[in-house]
Amino acid sequence: MEYLEHRRFSASGTLDTPKHVSIPCCAKGWEAAAMVAVFTMDLGWVALQPVVGLPATLAAIFLQTSVVFASLHGDRFDLMQNVTVLLWVLSNAVWMFSEFLWDEARPEGVLALVPGLQSLDKAAFPIWLAVGGVLIWTAAIVPAIFYANHFTVQQLQRGSGHTCFTTCSDGNTALGMPLRIYRELFVLPWLISDACWMFCNRQSALGLSPGLFGPVGVAFGVAAIAISTDATLRYVSMLQIRDAALCAAELLWVSGNVAWMAADLHGAETVAARACFGAMFAAGLSVALWLAFTEDDSTPLVNCVFIPCTNSEKAFLLKDYSKGEITKLNAARECSA
Fold it and tell me: pTM of this prediction?
């Protein structure tokens, strides 16, 4: 895949020193498509419709894997974040499929019509959940190590006048880190929350008590909501609408899942409750679709994913954050490998 070098322009339109950050021109398109697939996956799951959830899960795995490969030559934060999300998608794929098969007396939806599935041994349910648990706890460890290393290095470099993540900061910071990194901080408590939820489901399948894992999971979920809310408000205050919309979509997704978890743990997973959770996912999906099919001021349309690219020159609008100007850069680069 071809990469574009993000450069700054002065007020006169001349090219200044490059920022030395390589940006895959289709990576944002893959990310947007993966987000749409994840929302669709959760919609199929909460509606107990394998015909929706399973194809969306396969699409999410394929698209997120593509995002990981597209970020191999990017900065380390993007790579870490994308690998983490891929591990989460894989863990939830195992979790969702096992629930479709064994959570009720018979497989859900169209799976009940597949010969042989009804005769599968339900004793395999906890085993599948254990496999999903290993994946999701691994996904939680990756960002935990990353952020711990970040804060450690930041403390060591503070006296030398250097700062972390200079290559990926846009000048807006929160808690000593670039805002675009801070806004993804919610992923860490959310992964711990999701892992606790999966553990509770496994304990229930084994006929055992989940202990404190239920309240701990809800607490970490609320922490994820708080971080995502704060990030959304920060972008709203800066009038960065697309970033605010992205954070709002993530907030709807996390809030819907935390509410779903609380209802599941308290045995209140009624049809009406599932409809409410589904409405939150549908609202987030609408925002994700808007982000996927519209153009912003720093990345091209996701037609790299949904519509075949050509080899003609692409015009990208790059924002000079130091002067607040929008300038046009014509780049004669291919958009696909």
Answer: 0.76
